[in-house]
């Protein structure tokens, strides 16, 4: 008996990192999962390893037309959708004077517009399901400032705000919308910048980076029927980083 | 069924409401639980119905000597202490500040805040000795936003939030995580007593954007997550379960 038996979930950016851990845990808990990403080789391999209840589809979250195909594919493979994890995202770092408008816009397109398009595209399916749970992966940088991350921080604050607006708009449909705010986790994104890891690690009260499974567990709780009264809230899992 | 297997927990105010639902969920998931409260008949009956892994103890959370007895009882009965849930609390009468008695204000601070301080102080030695653990403090949406005529309750629930953060920093190095839970309106006696029967229906449907009150088990499931190893990287944070009440 899994916590997500009979549920159909879409997880974006599911080929690696936090998304991969979420796909693995959701599948273990009985969900049927469509994982999407721009990394086809890793995504195909993960889906193949997890069996018939997990499929991969190529998907750029910043493209509205692709979202329509993704939702249609999830419905035809597995049935009506009840869980969406908007996890895909890209990092950005560097002083703002060297950040071009097109680089800024690309971060916004993927991290922010991608979340809007995902919520918009999955709505009709969730309404027919009779409700659902949307989980938007923001960041501690969706709550606090940090230097040299102007586009990333803008996009992650936007995700927290959109989550609340959508939660209020969709409550009558019993579609719950919450944001998760990870601290620093051992994924290719974070480990890709050793200088950042070295700087932040001493600042984490827990004394270590998070394990991707620790975000997957938070997403699982929010996706499950155990949390049917939670909507519009921020769920921080950061080893105490924003406590001080 | 074993998310709390072998974990020892102390839950205050566990005779009814959110505390009772939490005790039930913990035992279902394999925990050994000491339930404490002032309501002995209800507490004893609940503990009996939960079987050998649950015990009940009379415990006034405002009294340090009662806390000493509670931590002594739980460690003797179950061999340690991994999880403390500071759930006992009271709601003050809703009154404008001019009509709020100083003694009532102090009473609410005593039951809702001093209790949490005493509880963490009393439990810390046993918890440190028992390895990784978790403390969950019941604040409220009243610890997030302001409402009129609730000065004492609001002050008390903001204080719980602050206590939580300070202890999260202090206990991190011992592997003890400390978080607060912030329910919206929950269908318990606390709320039933607050709302006149003739307004109950209207109150329920306007209690949150989801159009209903929370069921106690919906808060218990949040507490369970924070008590279990599933939340092993969460500390010092506020976990809001309010049907969207604080989104606006
Ligand atoms: N790792 C951390 O410390 C951390 C902290 C806070 C927030 N986050 C957030 O968590 C999410 C996952 O991050 P991660 O650490 O696993 O990163 P990651 O880089 O390891 O994984 C992100 C995945 O998203 C995919 N992706 C990127 N652009 C895409 C697009 N346009 N369409 C579809 N997929 C796309 C990538 O190919 C990759 O597989 C991101 O939103 C990130 O901002 C991560
Ligand atoms: N019900 C809600 O809507 C709601 C909302 C937000 C927060 N909360 C909080 O959740 C917690 C539980 O509330 P509930 O709704 O289950 O209330 P409840 O009144 O049903 O239960 C509270 C329990 O605490 C016990 N208690 C009171 N004073 C005590 C003392 N001095 N020592 C020991 N036990 C004592 C009571 O006997 C009772 O069994 C409280 O801290 C409350 O403030 C409740």
Overview in brief:
Chain A is α/β, with parallel strands linked by helices and 244 residues long. Chain A has helices at residues 17-28, 40-50, 64-78, 101-129, 150-170, 188-191, 194-200, 212-223, and strands at residues 8-12, 32-37, 54-58, 83-86, 132-137, 175-182, 234-237. Chain A is built from 8 helices and 7 strands, in the order βαβαβαβαβαβαααβ.
Structural notes for this entry:
The complex is a heterodimer of chains A (244) and B (248). Chain A has 244 residues and is of the alpha/beta class. Chain A is 45% helix and 16% strand. Chain A has helices spanning 17-28, 40-50, 64-78, 101-129, 150-170, 188-191, 194-200, 212-223; strands at 8-12, 32-37, 54-58, 83-86, 132-137, 175-182, 234-237. In chain A, strands 3-2-1-4-5-6-7 form a 7-stranded parallel sheet, sandwiched between helices. In chain A, strand 2 (32-37), helix 2 (40-50) and strand 3 form a beta-alpha-beta unit. The N and C termini of chain A lie far apart (40 Å). The model of chain A has no long low-confidence stretch (mean pLDDT 97). With 248 residues, chain B is an alpha/beta fold. In chain B, 45% of the residues lie in helices and 15% in strands. In chain B, strand 4 (83-86), helix 4 (102-129) and strand 5 form a beta-alpha-beta unit. At the A-B interface, helix 5, helix 8 and strand 7 of A face helix 5, helix 8 and strand 7 of B.
Shape of chain B: globular
Largest sheet of chain B: 7 strands, parallel
What structural class do helix, strand and pairing data of chain A support?
alpha/beta
Number of helices of chain B: 8
Number of strands of chain B: 7
Helix segment tally of chain A: 8
Number of strands of chain A: 7
Measured by DSSP, the beta-strand proportion of chain A falls in 15-25%
- The whole-angstrom Rg of chain B is 17 Å
Bound molecules: nicotinamide-adenine-dinucleotide
User: What is the element string of chain B, with H for helices and E for strands?
Assistant: EHEHEHEHEHEHHHE
Q: For the residues shown, what is the average pLDDT of chain B?
A: 97
Residue runs with pLDDT of under 50 for 5 or more positions of chain B: none
Q: How do the strands of the widest beta sheet of chain A line up side by side?
A: 3-2-1-4-5-6-7
Distance between the termini of chain A: 40 Å
Measured distance between first and last alpha carbons of chain B: 37 Å
């Amino acid at each position: 008996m899994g916590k997500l038996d009979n549920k159909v979930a879409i997880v974006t950016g599911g080929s690696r990192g936090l998304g991969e851990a979420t796909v693995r845990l959701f599948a273990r808990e009985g969900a049927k999962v469509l994982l999407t990403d721009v990394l086809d080789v890793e995504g195909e391999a993960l889906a193949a390893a997890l069996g018939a209840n997990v499929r991969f589809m190529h998907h750029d979250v910043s493209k509205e037309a692709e979202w329509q195909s993704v939702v249609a594919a999830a419905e035809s493979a597995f049935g009506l959708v009840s869980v969406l994890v908007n996890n895909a995202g890209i990092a950005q770092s560097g002083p703002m004077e060297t950040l071009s408008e097109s680089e800024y816009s690309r971060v916004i397109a993927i991290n922010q517009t991608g979340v809007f398009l995902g919520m918009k595209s999955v709505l009709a399916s969730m309404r027919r399901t009779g409700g659902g749970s949307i989980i938007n992966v923001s960041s501690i940088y969706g709550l606090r400032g940090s230097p040299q991350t102007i586009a990333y921080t803008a996009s992650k604050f936007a995700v927290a705000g959109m989550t609340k607006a959508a939660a209020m708009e969709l409550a009558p449909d019993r579609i719950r919308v919450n944001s998760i705010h990870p601290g620093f986790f051992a994924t290719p994104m974070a480990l890709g910048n050793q200088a950042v890891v070295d700087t932040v690690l001493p600042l984490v009260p827990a004394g270590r980076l998070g394990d991707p499974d620790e975000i997957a567990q938070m997403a699982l709780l929010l996706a499950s029927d155990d949390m049917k009264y939670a909507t519009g809230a921020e769920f921080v899992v950061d080893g105490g980083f924003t406590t001080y | 069924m074993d998310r709390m297997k072998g974990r020892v927990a102390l839950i205050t105010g566990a005779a009814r409401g959110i505390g009772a639902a939490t005790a039930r969920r913990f035992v279902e998931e394999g925990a050994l639980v000491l339930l404490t409260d002032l309501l002995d008949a209800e507490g004893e009956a609940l503990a009996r119905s939960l079987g050998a892994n649950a015990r009940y103890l009379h415990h006034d959370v405002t009294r340090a000597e009662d806390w000493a007895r509670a931590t002594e009882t739980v460690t003797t009965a179950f061999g340690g202490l991994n999880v403390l849930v500071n759930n006992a609390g009271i709601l003050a009468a809703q009154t404008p500040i001019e009509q709020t008695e100083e003694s009532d204000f102090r009473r609410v601070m005593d039951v809702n805040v001093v209790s949490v301080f005493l509880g963490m102080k009393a439990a810390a030695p046993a918890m440190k000795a028992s390895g990784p653990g978790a403390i969950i403090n019941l604040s409220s949406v009243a610890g997030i936003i302001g409402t009129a005529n609730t000065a004492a309750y609001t002050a008390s629930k903001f204080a719980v939030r602050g206590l939580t953060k300070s202890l999260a920093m202090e206990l991190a190095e011992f592997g003890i995580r400390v978080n607060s839970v912030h329910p919206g309106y929950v269908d318990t006696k606390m709320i039933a007593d607050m709302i006149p029967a003739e307004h109950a229906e209207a109150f329920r449907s306007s209690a949150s954007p989801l159009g209903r009150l929370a069921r106690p088990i919906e808060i218990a499931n949040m507490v369970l997550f924070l008590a279990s190893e599933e939340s092993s990287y969460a500390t010092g944070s506020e976990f809001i379960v309010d049907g969207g009440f604080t989104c606006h």
